[in-house]
Amino acid sequence: MSGPNPDSTDGEHAATPDEHVAKPQIARDAIAGAAEILGGAEGLAAWAKVDTKNEDKFWTTLYPKLIPLQVPSDTGGPIRIAAAIEAARKRVQALARDRDSDGVANEPR
Predict the structure, then answer these.
(1) How many domains does the structure of the chain reveal?
(2) What letter would DSSP give residue 14?
(3) Model confidence band, residue 1 (pLDDT cutoffs 50, 70, 90)
């Protein structure tokens, strides 16, 4: 007995490699399109500036997603940078706590 027939009209067919790749790309494109409708980079920056809690979320949740969890080292093995991300997160949180009442960060001590 052979596998599902890709030419079958009963709705069953084997997924092609392109179909597996296309679905995540479709989702990424939809998210990117929604981001543009919501204001793109300018909208995101405006959202972050509205409230210091939003800015904290940007720096501690969104921005670190751009940083790879592993980077190659000179020896060819990975360097784990989770500790560096956590240190940066703590620094941002400390700066947020040190803000003046008008929302301006104090100079580092």
Answers:
(1) 2
(2) P
(3) very low
